[in-house]
């Protein structure tokens, strides 16, 4: 796909990387380092998922890249424009949709989008037509003339996203677009985003949902404490944790030993045993045929199997391996203690 | 370059991609005014859709007018004489001043609300004039104050208030009240951006604005004040804006002694100077605060 580039010639060597951040630091006072040397590169037309727990620095990174916040150190360019020096020009080329649906409750959906269009200086006529186009695209036509105060959470998020798209931005930033949405609205939002991305928009998406990054992003940067601690495709990250594993749960604790022997013999690998849950795991290759072989071997050894499956590593495993804590530990720590 | 795809004869040429309508981040005063108007319209729609706000700023001044006129009116003496009818006329300019100043606090509460809901971030991510959100907000709040003044004037006419001067002078009196309130609303906008929650903002301004509008000649003549309060009150711009509109409406009782101090003797000029000083300080300060944004 050919996309017209409108990048100043001075930065022509960077055209493939439409977002470049180098050594971004943002501190508040002396103690808080929201960003601690963040480096990012996003190729044009791709989706980067910025994945991390609450407080990892995702929102701060987006706010710096969208000119809302000035970095303490480091620099960043988006579409060849410096986020500090060229802030004003950059604002006309990006779209931002935040964690909080930034729409006016007292205005109707149509009025909200029309206002945004005018503030992008699209002119009266273009603002109006663009507002209707987007309302239709996001399935908000019926609600277009109702104040946003009457909208559901999912509708507000869609309207907010529509606001980010008013000026057909080259680069789109979505900060936790589905946080707080119910599962159905989340699926709807994913469809909308996937469709956008298929149209070739470069997207930087932050999320604390591993599934979301896996599903929407071409590449994922895992961030923790203001720094990128790993990046790559979802598959590359999963490989860091290891490949497929077989996972077997036996009916009785006395079956653990024969089951382990059977699996060790079959796979030639060390078998992990979790006595508490009566679960055994072992690295395997060969997918489903291996599973069939394993079940036969266990049956032959007289082991009663409650559950057996091939498990591919999830991004949750990635996070646990990389940081030593799960992605949502912070939230559950209080309850666990 | 031979590889450049040319239109192949015999086939339909590919439809050229429409040039992207790239909005240009134009600058200049015209854009700023335009952007300011766009935001003002948004705030005016709010006045229309959420009439509760307006009801609050209409009912309470009517209540104040009636309470002061009929509860205190019989006890407060002007120039040594208790004349309830004269007091009611005297009172009106004071109530007007107090009400438009309280009206200006809506600006700050509105800014705090916008920060809280995140719409300020939406605005800040747009290539609009940085002053537009503030200009739009303060302008819309002037409209709110105009509506309030109209309602209050009608109420006052009912209780016996009359304008005893020319139309021109009376208009100047109203304009001065609105101008002063407009300047105050820039101070409010600044603090609204600082505190970020409308509840906190309302509490704080109440504590400041209430004494400021009471330690003044709004409701009673300064003669009865203890000396330190009287000095403060006679240089308080709330006193001078009240004095100015009272004079311009022709509501000064004949037997009241002339005021002491340059400020009260030249209330129009003194009030305008205060207004300009406030704008000179707070417009840049508030715009800068808006550009810096709230760090979440």
Major sheet attributes of chain B: none
Strand order of the largest sheet of chain A: 6-7-8-3-9-10
**Overall spatial form of chain B:** elongated
- The share of residues in helices of chain B is over 70%
Round the mean pLDDT of chain B to the nearest integer and report it.
86
Shape of chain A: elongated
Largest interface, by Cβ-Cβ below 8 angstroms: which chains and how many residues each? A-B, 40 and 35 residues
- pLDDT < 50 stretches of chain B: 1-23
Proportion of residues in extended strands of chain B: under 5%
- Percent helix of chain A, as a range, is 25-40%
- Radius of gyration of chain A, in Å, reads 24 Å
- Strand fraction of chain A equals 25-35%
Q: Let me know the largest β-sheet of chain A.
A: 6 strands, mixed
How far is the first residue's CA from the last residue's CA of chain B? Answer: 53 Å
Please tell me how large the radius of gyration of chain B is: 25 Å
Count the beta strands of chain A.
14
Work out the oligomeric state of the chains in this entry. heterodimer
Provide a concise account of the structure shown.
The complex is a heterodimer of chains A (337) and B (296). Chain A is an alpha/beta fold and 337 residues long. Helices cover 37% and strands 25% of the residues of chain A.
Write up what this structure looks like.
The complex is a heterodimer of chains A (337) and B (296). Chain A has helices at 58-65, 87-91, 109-119, 124-137, 153-165, 183-198, 210-216, 234-241, 256-267, 287-300, 315-323, 329-336, and strands at residues 17-28, 32-43, 47-51, 73-78, 81-82, 94-97, 171-175, 202-207, 219-224, 227-232, 245-250, 272-274, 279-283, 305-311. Chain A has 337 residues and is an alpha/beta fold. In chain A, 43% of the residues are buried. With 296 residues, chain B is mainly α. Chain B is 70% helix and 0% strand. Chain B has eleven helices and no strands. Chain B has helices spanning 29-49, 51-72, 84-117, 119-124, 132-158, 167-195, 198-214, 227-235, 237-249, 262-265, 267-292. The longest helix of chain B is centred in the middle third of the chain and has 34 residues, at 84-117. Chain B is elongated. The model of chain B is unreliable at 1-23 (pLDDT under 50). The A-B interface holds A 4, 6, 28, 59, 63, 66-69, 88-89, 91-94, 96, 98-107, 111, 115-116, 118-122, 126, 147, 160, 163, 167-168 and B 17, 20-27, 31, 34-35, 38-39, 41-42, 45-46, 49-50, 117-119, 121-128, 132, 293, 295-296.
């Amino acid at each position: 796909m050919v996309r017209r580039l409108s990048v100043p010639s001075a930065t022509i060597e960077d055209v493939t990387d439409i977002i470049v951040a180098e050594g971004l630091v943002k501190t508040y006072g002396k103690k808080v380092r929201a960003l601690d040397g963040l480096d990012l590169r996003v190729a044009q037309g791709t989706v980067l998922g910025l994945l991390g727990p609450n407080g990892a620095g995702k929102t701060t990174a987006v706010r710096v890249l969208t000119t809302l916040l000035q970095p303490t150190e480091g620099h960043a360019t988006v579409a060849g424009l410096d986020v500090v020096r060229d802030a004003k020009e950059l604002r006309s080329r990006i779209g931002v949709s935040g964690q909080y649906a930034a729409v006016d409750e007292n205005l109707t959906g149509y009025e909200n989008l029309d206002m945004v269009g005018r503030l992008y200086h699209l002119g009266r006529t273009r603002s109006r037509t663009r507002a209707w186009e987007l309302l239709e695209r996001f399935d908000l036509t019926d609600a277009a003339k109702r104040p946003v105060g009457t909208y559901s959470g999912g509708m507000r998020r869609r309207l907010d996203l529509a606001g980010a798209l008013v000026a057909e931005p080259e680069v789109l930033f979505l900060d936790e677009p589905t946080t707080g949405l119910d599962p159905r609205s989340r699926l709807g939002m994913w469809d909308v985003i996937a469709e956008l991305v298929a149209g070739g928009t470069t997207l930087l998406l932050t999320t604390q949902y591993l599934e979301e990054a896996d599903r929407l992003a071409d590449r994922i940067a895992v961030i923790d404490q203001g720094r990128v601690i790993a990046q790559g495709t979802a598959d590359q990250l999963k490989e860091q944790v290891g490949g497929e594993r077989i996972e077997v749960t036996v009916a009785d604790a006395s079956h653990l030993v024969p089951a382990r022997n059977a699996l060790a013999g079959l796979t030639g690998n060390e078998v992990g045993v979790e006595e508490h849950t009566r679960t055994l795991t072992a690295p395997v290759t060969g997918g489903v045929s291996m599973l069939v072989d394993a079940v036969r071997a266990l049956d032959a050894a007289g082991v009663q199997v409650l559950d057996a499956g091939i498990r591919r590593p999830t991004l949750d495993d990635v996070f646990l391996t990389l940081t030593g804590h799960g992605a949502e530990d912070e939230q559950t720590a209080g309850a666990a203690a | 370059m031979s590889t450049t795809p040319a239109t192949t004869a015999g086939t339909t040429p590919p439809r050229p991609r429409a040039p992207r309508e790239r909005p240009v981040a134009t600058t200049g005063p015209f854009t700023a005014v335009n952007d300011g108007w766009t935001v003002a319209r948004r705030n005016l729609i709010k006045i229309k859709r959420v009439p509760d706000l307006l009801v609050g700023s209409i009912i309470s001044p009517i209540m104040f007018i009636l309470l002061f006129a009929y509860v205190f009116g019989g006890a407060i003496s002007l120039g040594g004489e208790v004349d309830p009818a004269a007091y009611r006329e005297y009172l009106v300019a004071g109530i007007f001043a107090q009400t438009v100043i309280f009206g200006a606090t809506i600006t700050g509460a509105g800014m705090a609300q916008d920060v809280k809901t995140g719409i300020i971030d939406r605005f800040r991510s747009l290539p609009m004039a940085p002053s537009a959100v503030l200009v739009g907000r303060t302008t819309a709040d002037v409209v709110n104050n105009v509506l309030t003044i109209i309602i209050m004037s009608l109420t006052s006419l009912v209780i016996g208030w009359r304008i005893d001067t020319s139309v021109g002078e009376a208009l100047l009196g109203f304009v001065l009240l609105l101008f002063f309130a407009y300047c105050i609303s820039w101070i409010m906008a600044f603090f609204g951006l600082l505190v970020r929650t409308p509840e906190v903002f309302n509490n704080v301004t109440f504590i400041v604005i209430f004494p400021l509008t009471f330690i003044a000649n709004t409701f009673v003549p300064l003669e009865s004040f203890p000396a330190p309060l009287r000095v403060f009150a006679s240089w308080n711009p709330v006193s001078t804006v009240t004095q100015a509109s009272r004079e311009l409406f022709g509501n000064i009782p004949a037997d009241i002694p002339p005021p002491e101090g340059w400020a009260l003797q030249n209330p129009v000029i003194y009030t305008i100077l205060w207004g300009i000083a406030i704008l000179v300080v707070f417009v840049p300060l508030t715009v800068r605060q808006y550009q810096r944004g709230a760090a979440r």
